[in-house]
Amino acid sequence: MNKSIVTAVLVLFCCGLRAQSLNVERPGSGSIPSLKEVFRDDFLIGAALNMSEVEERDPAVSALIASQFNTLTPENNMKAAFLHPGWDRYDFVQADEVVGFAMRHHMKVNGHCLIWHSQLPAYMRGMQDADSVRRYFTDHITTVAGRYDGKVYSWDVVNEALNEDGTLRKSIFQRSLGDNYIVEAFRLAQKAAPHTQLYYNDYNIERGSKREGAVALVKKIQAAGVRIDGVGIQGHWSAGRVPLEDIEKSIQEFAALGVKVMFTELDLSVLPSPRGHGGADVSDRAAYEDQLNPYVNGLPDSVQAVLAQSYAQLFGLFMKYRDKIGRVTFWGVDDGQSWLNGFPVRGRTNYPLLFDRQLRPKPAFYKVIGTAERAGVM
Ligand code: G3I
């Protein structure tokens, strides 16, 4: 057999394997491709889950999650406000349920998040006493990371510590503990959770000065001899306006530091942005106006196509750098439960994910699947 025939046979065989892996049964929906299967050799595929999903209140949702994703991030329930409600009191019930769900469905858990200025327990909000902040900081990381070591695959150790200009946010932790608090957070996490991957996570860190700030932060942690395994680029972008060049540069620059790159909270808004809004600063809200909510009765085909195209470009890029990317996680499963229906304007109808409100795969889903198939043939 000559070389080109052998190559053709191999390509056909590989395509056949990919095609087989595409057919996954989901109750009531016939068979659709599986994201986790088609990207199996490339990167993990995840979704953020709320407690209704974790508690499996809807079997169709559970079946969809189990068939599509091999990793999950709890959308809220491992944040400090939920886990650490009293000064000396932890409540692990929901976090344990998250781990239980993942075990039942053979999924990895990304713990989200150990140190964040937002969604803090009430007793910490406005805390001025530096000694108390240090006690909270040390105890929280040590207790939580220690309890879940070996049970969660990874932690977002520090979340959203940077300003848009790349300087450190003047958070409660920075003000009380100084600029070195991030290194200290990773040092404590490394000690408490030696078997867990440790990440820094933020929005807009693909962009200019903020990216430079993130690169400097990773270098600082490494220079202190402390372990950091990855950087999470959240990925709250808008359809038709995904900053592909910045994303490509940031993959290259973060990977050059020897850490994995993760896309951790991916969603693409299709709605108009008030004040040219971008990112995910939860305090940045705008008032409702009808013109900011144009698709209450459904998404027009033309916008659906823009969304699909943006997702295709993004996953085309992810596939180009699949050796550097550890995970791609969507911030939600279906459009109906996306936080973007309430942010930055409350009460809107957004369509940022791959599954619609009836859990049906959208055109964007098939475009994303297509990027894996194309890469498989090349
Ligand atoms: O728990 C309370 C509940 O007791 C109360 O009855 C209810 C009434 O509104 O609110 C509940 O809290 C809500 C919480 O989610 C849990 O459901 C908050 O109002 C709501 O603001 C909060 O929103 C979350 C937001 O983080 C808070 O900062 C979103 O669901 C969640 O998607 C979002 O996730 C963040 C990431 O953690 C970090 N990156 C940005 C991303 C989007 O903002």
Notable traits:
378 residues; alpha/beta; TIM Barrel; 8-stranded parallel β-barrel; two-stranded antiparallel sheet; 41% helix; 16% strand; globular; disordered N terminus; binds ligand G3I
List the helices and strands and how they pair.
Blueprint: H1 3-22, E1 24-26, E2 30-32, H2 35-38, E3 44-49, H3 51-54, H4 59-68, E4 71-74, H5 80-83, H6 93-104, E5 108-115, H7 130-147, E6 154-159, H8 172-177, H9 181-192, E7 197-202, H10 208-223, E8 230-233, E9 236-238, H11 244-256, E10 260-269, H12 301-320, E11 325-330, H13 363-377
Parallel strand pairs: 3-4, 3-11, 4-5, 5-6, 6-7, 7-8, 8-10, 9-10, 10-11
Antiparallel strand pairs: 1-2
Helix pairs in contact: 7-9, 12-13
How many H/I helices? 13
CATH C-level: Alpha Beta
Described by the principal axes of the CA atoms, the overall outline is globular
Helical amount: 40-55%
Summarize the helix and strand pattern as letters: HEEHEHHEHHEHEHHEHEEHEHEH
Q: What does this 3D model show about the protein?
A:
The chain is an alpha/beta fold and 378 residues long. It has one domain: Glycosidases (TIM Barrel), CATH 3.20.20. The protein contains 13 helices and 11 strands. The strands form 2 sheets. An 8-stranded parallel beta barrel has the order 3-4-5-6-7-8-10-11, surrounded by 5 helices. Strands 1-2 form a two-stranded antiparallel ribbon. Strand 9, helix 11 (244-256) and strand 10 (260-269) form a beta-alpha-beta unit. Residues 1-29 have low confidence and may be disordered. The chain binds ligand G3I. Ligand G3I is lined by residues 75-76, 118-119, 159, 234, 265, 280, 282, 339.
